[in-house]
Amino acid sequence: MKKYYNIHTIWLLLILLTLSTYLFGHYQTSGFSVVLFLVVTAVIKAVLIMREFMELRGVSLMWRIIMYGWLTIVCLGIIISYAVSLT
Q: What is the pLDDT of residues 39-87, one digit of tens each?
């Protein structure tokens, strides 16, 4: 399979996503939509790091289920905790 990107493109995307989360903190924005955006950004960054830098693409299905499952559980826990704290 031919890759249409290189590791530098992934790195640049990670930097841009990090800067976007920094700007939310710098301007002190809040609310459920902001938290949802931040968690989605964190998920994208984590998936890119796991796939490209930890080379999770070529491992067995068990390891991918463990890593992506852990990420899903943690992020859902954060979103649910924040939603519960609003009520």
A: 999 999 999 999 988 888 889 999 999 999 999 999 999 999 999 998 7
Token pair, residue 37, equals: 């955006």
Contact 56, 71 (CB under 8 A): no
The residues, any chain, with a CB within 8 Å of residue 24's CB and separated by 6 or more, are: 34, 37, 38
Within 8 A by CB and 6+ apart from 10, the residues are 48, 52, 53
CB of 41 within 8 A of CB of 21?
A: yes
Neighbours of 38 (CB within 10 A): 17
* pTM (global) more than 0.70: yes
Amino acid residing at 32: F
Tell me if 40 sits within 8 A of 32, measured CB to CB. no
> What's at 33, amino acid-wise?
S
